[in-house]
């Protein structure tokens, strides 16, 4: 057999198998090409790869993204500047988030939630972030951290008590950080000392707690056996109305100003064994697991910021005239936005792939860290470039570019700093070469 | 009362359409529910919520992707969907209102609908003919461009906005056809739980070619052109010269 005929045969086989794949794909996937596709489109179809592209959305995903986009543009956009200026969340926005089902995205319908996939939930975070990252962070933390922790490890009674409320009217906070424990999370000093066979008493102060001003429930990490070190860390679901809890005033921050970030003091707060999430002493494990996937949500927030920036700057480049033509006509400008779009695409592919890996139950921790690390760098770069290309107007509060520039900065800090992501990536990378 | 609501899949209102090869290019263009049809769905769902309607059925005619449009209607609160599938274009190029109205007639007769709610027009072809044609074929009363719909004494009280003021029309008894105008209501967003629940609602699929209706267009589209590019404006010195130009050059005042 000549070389040529082998190639030909292989090409035919590939065409045939991809036709089969297509027949299956069109029945389950959203097909964006019109059915009356021209010949060249049909040819493109025939050599379509065996796997769907990571950025191609299912029908569910695209419908959900569209709804989130519409809500963010119509319902949220008009109050973004006001909320940033006042440094507080509009209560109507919060009730709308619950009414739309954005607060119980992965909670199953039997517990009053929307029953969405992880990827769909991440797409909602991205779309909201594209308009206001400070509202996106509330949605992200509530859904990807607390709701999921309870879904994964909560007892039946905890799930029955809290999931319906978390989906419909109760904001939650994830209480881990303390004055002395940031990146070194498990050096936390808050204690949960057993006082009887069924009761614990919490003491300590948590810092930088997102959503704390609105929260009706706290997921608190405290050490139930300090002598055992991190293996004493235990997670408790604590009703915000419990006696002994005081929420301090919100921090005045560089960005995400509409999202509250407060200290919380626990002073002899009584909780019961029923409030324990999962098992005593397993808190550190739950924490690692939930943050591993939670940071994909942060990566989505960062991508949303970068897209929000392009939404502002791209039309401007075509409108703004200098030296007798649109500034979009200058190659210098074209190359800058082309590079930004390339990096954004890379971040998007990394992030969506991390979503898909997680949903496929494949290892995703390294990829999630990479996605978060890279997306937070890209968002900062795109936001900065956006302001430069907008010129003077970009530096003012007339446009949202300066807000995106402030809002993105925390992306390289929270849910694991960039250095901590690098540490995770390096650790897993060396493990691959053991 | 059983309501049949028509939902048309059209090029999204926010998309700038491109003309290519003598027609509007539909390849890779975002398409969504005709905004006036959204208003019809919202009105139908409200009539159900106020216990005036027992069932709301959404009907869409068009390609496979109409299932998404139907799912949106189901997520907004319709009970079930009917999809008359066809690869013929529904933007007047292939299927025209006369054929569409006949397809509707078949479904109305089968479903024994008491009220048909439609958008006043599709934003693609802007005909506004399907409603009136359907009413004519059925021999039913019709009200077009409804701005308010109220159920009264087994019939309807419908307001329409005209150039000279609000006109109120009493439909003494059902069945009837009503087409919906922009200010009738503000359609709700589909919530996430409802989008997921909508997947479980039944959708019946039929083939347009098997409905016993002559689908051949009666009118021929000769040409489709892009709107001419807007001429650059001019700056006027002051109000007086503006008035002078409006009066003498443009001759509009």
TrEMBL record, chain A:
Q: Which co-factors does it depend on?
A: FAD
What's its EC?
A: 1.3.8.5
Q: Does the keyword Flavoprotein apply?
A: yes
Primary enzyme class: oxidoreductase
Query: Cellular component terms, GO, for this chain's entry?
Result: mitochondrial matrix
SUPFAM superfamilies per UniProt: Acyl-CoA dehydrogenase C-terminal domain-like, Acyl-CoA dehydrogenase NM domain-like
Question: Where is this protein localized, as stated in its record?
Answer: Mitochondrion matrix
Q: How does it assemble?
A: Homotetramer.
| Name of the protein described by the UniProt record | Short/branched chain specific acyl-CoA dehydrogenase, mitochondrial
- Taxonomic classification, please? Eukaryota, Sar, Stramenopiles, Ochrophyta, Bacillariophyta
TrEMBL record, chain B:
InterPro entries listed in its UniProt record: ETF_a/b_N, ETF_b, ETF_beta_N, Rossmann-like_a/b/a_fold
Q: Which Gene Ontology cellular component annotation is one that this UniProt entry carries?
A: mitochondrial matrix
Cell inner membrane among the record's keywords?
Answer: no
- UniProt-listed SMART domains: ETF (SM00893)
Major location (coarse): mitochondrion
A Pfam family the protein falls into: ETF
CDD domains reported for this sequence: ETF_beta
Coiled-coil stretches, from where to where?
A: none
Location comes to: Mitochondrion matrix
Q: Which residues form the Electron transfer flavoprotein alpha/beta-subunit N-terminal domain?
A: 21-215
Question: What does the UniProt keyword field contain?
Answer: Electron transport, Mitochondrion, Transport
Enumerate the Gene Ontology biological process terms: amino acid catabolic process; fatty acid beta-oxidation using acyl-CoA dehydrogenase
**What does this protein do, in the record's words?**
The electron transfer flavoprotein serves as a specific electron acceptor for several dehydrogenases, including five acyl-CoA dehydrogenases, glutaryl-CoA and sarcosine dehydrogenase. It transfers the electrons to the main mitochondrial respiratory chain via ETF-ubiquinone oxidoreductase (ETF dehydrogenase).
The subunit field of the Swiss-Prot or TrEMBL record says:
Heterodimer of an alpha and a beta subunit.
Entry similarity comment: Belongs to the ETF beta-subunit/FixA family.
According to UniProt, the name of this protein is Electron transfer flavoprotein subunit beta
């Amino acid at each position: 057999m000549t070389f040529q005929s082998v190639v030909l045969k292989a090409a035919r086989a590939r065409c045939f198998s991809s036709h089969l794949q297509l027949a299956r794909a069109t029945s389950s996937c959203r097909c964006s090409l019109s059915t009356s596709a021209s010949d060249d489109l049909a040819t493109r179809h025939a050599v379509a790869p065996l796997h769907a592209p990571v950025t191609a959305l299912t029908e569910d995903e695209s419908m959900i993204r569209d709804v989130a986009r519409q809500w963010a543009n119509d319902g949220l956009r008009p109050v973004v500047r006001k909320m940033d200026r006042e440094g507080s969340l509009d209560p109507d926005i919060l009730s709308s988030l619950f009414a739309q089902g954005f607060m119980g995205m992965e909670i199953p319908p039997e517990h009053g939630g929307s029953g969405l996939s992880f990827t769909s939930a991440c797409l909602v975070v991205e779309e909201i972030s594209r308009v206001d990252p400070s509202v996106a962070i509330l949605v992200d933390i509530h859904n990807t951290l607390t709701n999921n922790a309870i879904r994964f490890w909560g007892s039946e009674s905890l799930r029955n008590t809290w999931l319906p409320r978390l989906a419909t009217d109760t904001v939650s906070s994830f209480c881990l950080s303390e004055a002395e424990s940031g990146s070194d999370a498990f050096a936390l000093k808050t204690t949960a000392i057993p006082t009887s066979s069924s009761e614990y008493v919490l003491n300590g102060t948590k810092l930088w707690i997102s959503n704390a001003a609105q929260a009706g429930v706290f997921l608190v990490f405290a050490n139930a056996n300090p002598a055992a070190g991190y293996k004493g860390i235990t997670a408790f679901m604590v009703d915000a109305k419990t006696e002994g809890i005081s929420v301090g005033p919100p921090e005045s921050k560089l960005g995400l100003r509409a999202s509250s970030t407060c200290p919380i003091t626990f002073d002899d707060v009584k909780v019961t064994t029923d409030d324990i999430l999962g098992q005593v002493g397993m808190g550190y494990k739950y924490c690692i697991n939930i943050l591993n996937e939670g940071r994909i949500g942060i990566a989505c927030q960062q991508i949303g910021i970068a897209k929000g920036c392009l939404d502002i700057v791209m039309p401007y480049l075509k409108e703004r005239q200098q030296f007798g033509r649109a500034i979009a006509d200058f190659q210098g400008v074209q190359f800058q936005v082309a590079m930004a779009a390339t990096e954004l695409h890379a971040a998007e592919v990394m992030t969506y792939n991390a979503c898909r890996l997680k949903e496929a139950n494949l290892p995703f921790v390294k990829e999630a860290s990479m996605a978060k690390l890279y997306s937070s760098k890209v968002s900062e770069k795109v936001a900065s470039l956006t302001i430069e290309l907008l010129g003077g107007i970009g530096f003012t509060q007339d446009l949202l570019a300066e807000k995106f520039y402030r809002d993105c900065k925390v992306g390289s800090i929270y849910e694991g700093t960039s250095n901590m992501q690098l540490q995770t990536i390096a650790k897993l990378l060396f493990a691959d070469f053991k | 009362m059983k309501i049949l609501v028509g939902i048309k899949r059209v090029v999204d209102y926010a998309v700038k359409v491109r003309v290519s090869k003598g027609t509007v290019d539909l390849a890779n263009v975002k398409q969504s529910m005709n905004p006036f049809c959204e208003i019809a769905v919202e009105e139908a769902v409200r009539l159900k919520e106020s216990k005036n309607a027992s069932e709301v059925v959404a009907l869409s005619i068009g390609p496979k992707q109409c299932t998404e449009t139907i799912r949106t209607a189901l997520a907004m609160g319709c009970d079930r969907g009917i999809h008359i599938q066809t690869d013929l274009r529904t933007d007047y190029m292939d299927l025209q209102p006369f054929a569409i109205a006949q397809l509707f007639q078949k479904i109305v007769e089968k479903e024994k609908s008491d009220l048909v709610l439609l958008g006043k027009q599709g934003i693609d072809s802007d005909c506004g003919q399907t409603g009136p044609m359907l009413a004519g074929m059925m021999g039913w009363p019709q009200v077009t461009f409804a701005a308010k719909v109220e159920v009264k004494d087994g019939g309807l009280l419908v307001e329409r906005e005209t150039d000279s003021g609000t006109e109120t029309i009493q439909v003494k008894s059902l069945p009837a056809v009503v087409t919906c105008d922009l200010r009738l209501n503000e359609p709700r967003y589909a919530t996430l739980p409802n989008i997921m629940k909508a997947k479980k609602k039944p959708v019946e699929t039929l083939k347009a070619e098997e409905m016993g209706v002559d689908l051949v267009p009666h009118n021929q589209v000769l040409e489709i052109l892009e709107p001419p590019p807007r001429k650059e404006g001019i700056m006027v010195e002051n109000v007086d010269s503006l008035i002078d130009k409006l009066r003498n050059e443009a001759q509009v005042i």
